[in-house]
Amino acid sequence: MTSRLRIRLTSIGLPALVFAIFLVVWQVATSALRIPQYILPSPADLVSAFDRVSKTFPYDLWVTSIEAASGFALGSVGGFLLALCFARYAMVEKSLMPYVIAMKTVPIVAIAPLLVIWLGAGLMPKIILSALICFFPVLISTVKGLKEVDPDQIDLFRSLAATDWQLFKWLRFPSCMVYLFPSLRISIVFAVIGAIVAEFASANAGLGFKIMLASFHVDTSAMFVYIIACALLSLILYGIVAFAERFAVPWSYSERTRGDL
Amino acid sequence: MPETALRFDDVHFAYENASISVEVIRSLSFDVSSHEIFGLVGPSGCGKTTILKLAADLVTGSTSGSIVIDGTSPAQARAERRIAILFQRPILLPWRNVLENVLLPSQIADDPPAPSKAKAMELLDLAGVADFSDRPIHELSGGMQQRVSLVRSLMSEPRLLYLDEPFISLDEVVKEDLLQLTQRVAQSLSLTVLHVSHSLEDSVLLCDRVAVLAPRPTTVSQLIDISLDRPRHYQQRIEPEFLEALSSVRNAVHANGRNALKGGLQ
Ligand SMILES: Nc1ncnc2c1ncn2[C@@H]1O[C@H](COP(=O)(O)OP(=O)(O)O)[C@@H](O)[C@H]1O
Ligand SMILES: [Mg+2]
């Protein structure tokens, strides 16, 4: 067995073992200590709860995924475009940047109930809330990325008498990708949070909505199922963005992994 | 009397940042003849990079005196792409592979792609890196990257090549190769080369004449002819003629009253 393979096996195998032990301890503890199901359901309770909700579960998962993904797309594209506009028109940046910085510190989820009043109980308020949360980190990191270009690289372009447009498309734009992706990875997680909080405010489907519903019925097992589903959804969406990053900015990815090892 | 390719005449320069002004160059004058390899040697921080950037129209600050490049201003020389610079670090774009990096100057100049590509491959071959043309940059060693940068700098067919300590961070064997390549390229393309470095040894190996710079604010303290035969080899640096030339530069440096020079001997 090569050492590389052994490292692989232990890096997957050990955490899996820990998880298995955790499940066993959880199961044994809940039955041995007679913890009531509405306080802490056992793993077996979760399995049966999942079985109970399995009919509607795919639809709720779908709704929340769509809300988060659309909000993410809308917010990050919007943030990116406004950043380009900032980079192009210094006056626009000068006048708006203080507000952008201020908005970054505002807990945007607080406006969820307001969005429900304005936009109703459908998908719209969830998408808008997710989009708003994604918007600011993407905007700020893109602005930063477009600015913080290696001054030597700029000198290289200037020494070749490059036009502003050439400088933008062949230098500023690609070098800002390295800043953009970390903020996209954060944003996709924020987008899921936004969708769930907006569902708390008012909804008729979705994982967040089902968590609320289960809490009204003190159906703790079902709550656990939906909470775990939210966590997994967030993890998977994050994985997709991180995977895309490997293809979009392979140079940054390879630098990072080289640094880690 | 050979033609003058680059002339600094009583040049003063200071960086102007917000409220403070940093005087870097005081009354700097020198001439570089066409097809000559001219060296500036001086301690780190004395203003060598600043001199190159001034001569390439890449810095702004308070300037006086005149810089003339083949009869025109540095700004015009830059606009006409008559100057190429090889920086201390290989400034390659990590999102482009080797060939795409080399093609950057042709893209910027909007040259037709097919002949540019042929020229790039020819130069990459000359530099011994043609096999790596489709590799991403991060797979190349520092020496390879510097070769690729050298190839890129030749793509715009410059008349003048500025070298900003391009061999400093390379290990001995790689440095040897690159010194050789630079000499060969300079000769076959009849380039005028301005090389700045704090390494006495590199400067003596590469240059026809060496100007020793005083510490900041810098000026030329002495001009020394290096009349060694070409092509020069790295192994030559233990031969008597080389050591003699080196010691004359060294003495000039020490005559500055400072021993601030790094590299070279001791
Ligand atoms: N943009 C700048 N603004 C102010 N001072 C600078 C700037 N760039 C360089 N300097 C200063 O000018 C001096 C010369 O720098 P440089 O030309 O890089 O020296 P060298 O290349 O010889 O090491 C240094 O003291 C440095 O701190
Ligand atoms: Mg320097």
In short:
The complex is a heterodimer of chains A (261) and B (266). With 261 residues, chain A is an all-alpha fold.
Task: Give a structural overview.
The complex is a heterodimer of chains A (261) and B (266). Chain A folds into two domains: 1-34; 43-260, MetI-like fold, CATH 1.10.3720. In chain A, α8 runs antiparallel to α10 (220-248). Chain A starts with a helix and ends with a helix. Chain A has helices at 3-32, 43-53, 57-88, 90-104, 112-119, 123-147, 151-159, 164-201, 207-216, 220-248, 250-260. Chain A is flat and about 75 Å long. With 261 residues, chain A is mainly alpha-helical. Chain B is α/β, with parallel strands linked by helices and 266 residues long. Chain B has two domains: 4-82 and 158-261, 3-Layer(aba) Sandwich (Rossmann fold); 93-154, no CATH class. Helices cover 35% and strands 25% of the residues of chain B. Chain B is built from nine helices and nine strands. In chain B, the strands form two sheets. In chain B, strands 5-6-7-3-8-9 form a six-stranded mixed sheet, sandwiched between helices. A three-stranded antiparallel sheet of chain B has the order 2-1-4, with helices on one face. In chain B, α5 (113-126) crosses α6 and α8 crosses α9. Chain B starts with a strand and ends in an 11-residue tail after the last helix. The model of chain B is unreliable at 259-266 (pLDDT under 50). At the A-B interface, α7, α8 and α11 of A face β5 and α4 of B. The complex binds adenosine-5'-diphosphate and magnesium ion. Magnesium ion binds at residues 48-49, 164 of chain B.
